[in-house]
Design goal:
The protein is an all-alpha fold. Helix content is about 70%, strand content about 0%. It contains 30 helices and no strands.
Length: about 550
């Protein structure tokens, strides 16, 4: 498409509506390619496609909106700046309103649905990039129209899904949108009604829809009554994480491909099953994110604490702990699929069939690690029905599997599983399951060459293991740990240095270890290091957010 991009832009002014539509369709595909999208930008293509949003031919409008949406997804700020101009937002709004009027017309409904989905999709993608879009949507009173689509029995699945995606993005920490949604009498009941639906193949309720409604309800919750909000938020999360099995479905689809060959591609049931599997993975991604957020809600923060932080005390209600324990741990572990896993290999065998699924599963893996970290931080690992030594062994297996094929693509996952190991180990009331080889592995994490986050987790685990031991019986371990921590003061990452300093503070807080600390001249070392640390923090000031800077200043 790269070579034909310029001719396609010229065809946007063709007298024939069919030619214009075909050009828009091909440009929407070209927008997914970096080289082609660059050519579109160089040739004033965004403005030319925008002009087609006002086309008299409805199919051209739908295709033009899709092309613009794909261009937004490239992340090109020039595209985003153009589309966030008030005049262009209004142009899209007019197309949206025209399509709403045609939705009840049977002959026009399919095209109208396409236009509505792409228009809301553009607003959704822009809201993620620019908060000011929420203000435009509120001013344009679009919320009322969007709310009407919260009905799976009356509107097409894709329309309902996109509407809820947009609502979820709008209500993500935007006070104006949250207030507006809460003041619309019909919205919350509609959302709750959808959360109570059970997804089924062939029905209007795809797996992602109830979970997205949970996300909106979570965003607009009454923070004075958090448990009341979770009554409706958590059931779809449980369903997505406990009941659906997309990995097994994907394996079945791959088997059908092998048996039926290319003819299977034409089978509508097969195509629908592929889409359902993708949707199921998306539902799990959303469910994992919601549960992660629920576990670290500011409402659980001890009233004596002023803000959420690493040392903040959380008062987790039993209802949430019981919910976390109700999600089968093997299910969550099974969502952590390394790039070399069997599921990923099966998908990569047929990229044309399972397009997007690789990215979805990689995203699910990252979110599963984050969710497990948050669960283990709030639930005592010994309360799970699986013995702690088995959980620990599975985490080590995952880490080893990822580390065997270390590359730029899976480093994030290695960081993820290391974070889970940290949360798990540091919340265990007993570490009798830990073997000497495991301790050596933890020490190696502290020296990891590729990731400050892994080194940081390694230091936290090493400290925890050390202080669990009695100094009088393990003086050599204390000595080795302290020496390693002193060495880490020279780490290139200031966050690793901060972790090491806090760990030294904790070791020095052990009365029995005081003679050792004196013999290692820790007071002198820290006195000499303090101005160096202050200088390093000052140099990084522009790269740190306020919370990080305050934490480092305190250290």
């Amino acid at each position: 498409l790269k070579e034909s991009t310029v001719p396609l832009l010229e065809q946007l002014d063709d007298p024939s509506g069919k030619v214009r539509q075909k050009a828009c369709n091909l440009l929407s595909l070209a927008s997914c390619d970096a080289a082609s999208s660059a050519i579109i930008m160089q040739n004033n293509g965004v403005q030319k496609i925008l002009h087609r949003v006002g086309d008299q031919c409805a199919p051209v409008v739908g295709s033009a909106l899709l092309a613009l949406r794909n261009l937004i997804l490239t992340g090109d700020q020039r595209v985003i700046s153009l589309l966030t101009m008030e005049s262009n937002l209004n142009l899209i709004l007019r197309a949206f309103n025209n399509a709403r009027e045609q939705l009840s017309n049977t002959s026009e409904a399919a095209v109208a649905t396409q236009i509505l989905c792409h228009a809301m999709g553009i607003y959704w993608n822009l809201v993620v990039e620019k908060e000011q879009i929420v203000d435009f949507i509120l001013r344009a009173q679009l919320l009322t129209a969007i709310a009407k689509f919260l009905n799976i029995s009356e509107y097409p699945t894709e329309l309902v899904t996109t509407a809820i995606h947009l609502l979820a993005a709008m209500t993500d920490e935007h006070a104006g949108a949250i207030h507006a949604v809460c003041n619309m009498a019909e919205v919350v009941p509609s959302l709750i009604k959808i959360t109570q639906c059970k997804p089924q193949k062939g029905s209007g309720c795809m797996p992602i829809i109830p979970v997205l409604c949970s996300a909106v309800l979570f965003n607009i919750r009454n923070k004075n009554e958090p448990l009341a909000a979770l009554t409706h938020v958590l059931p779809p999360v449980r369903y997505s994480l406990s009941e659906i099995r997309p990995n097994e479905e994907i394996s079945g689809l791959v088997s059908r491909l092998h048996e039926g060959g290319e003819n299977v591609y034409k089978d509508k049931d097969f195509v629908d099953a592929v889409e359902y599997s993708k949707n199921s993975v998306e539902a799990q991604i959303a469910g994992l994110e919601i549960l992660s957020n629920v576990c670290c809600m500011e409402e659980w923060l001890n009233s004596d604490e002023e803000e959420m932080g690493e040392g903040a005390a959380l008062q987790i209600p039993n209802e949430l702990k019981e919910f976390c324990l109700s999600i089968p741990l093997p299910n969550l572990m099974n969502m952590c699929q390394p790039l070399n896993s069997e599921v990923m290999k099966q998908i990569e065998e047929s990229p044309a069939v399972f397009s997007e699924l690789t990215d979805f599963i990689q995203d699910r893996t990252s979110r599963a690690f984050a969710c497990l970290s948050n669960i283990f931080a709030v639930v005592d690992p010994t309360e799970f029905p699986i013995p702690v030594e088995e959980i620990w062994a599975e985490l080590i297996r995952l880490y080893s599997s990822l580390s065997e094929n270390l590359n730029g693509k899976n480093l994030k996952d290695i960081e993820g599983v290391t974070s889970v190991m940290r949360a798990f180990l540091c919340n265990c009331p007993s570490i009798t399951f830990l073997q000497d080889a495991h301790l050596e592995g933890i020490v190696s994490l502290c020296e990891n060459l590729f990731s400050p986050e892994i080194r940081q987790c390694g230091i936290a685990m090493l400290l925890f293991v050390t202080v669990q031991k009695e100094f009088t019986h393990c003086e050599q371990l204390y000595n080795k740990t302290t020496n390693l921590l002193l060495k880490k003061l020279g780490d290139e990452s200031i966050t690793v240095v901060n972790e090491a300093l806090n760990a030294i503070f904790d070791i020095c807080g052990q009365d029995e270890a005081l003679p050792m600390c004196k013999s290692l001249n820790i007071l002198s070392v820290l006195s000499q290091f303090q101005p160096i640390f202050v200088n390093r923090v000052s140099q990084k000031r522009n790269l740190l957010d306020e919370e990080e800077f305050d934490m480092l200043q305190e250290t």
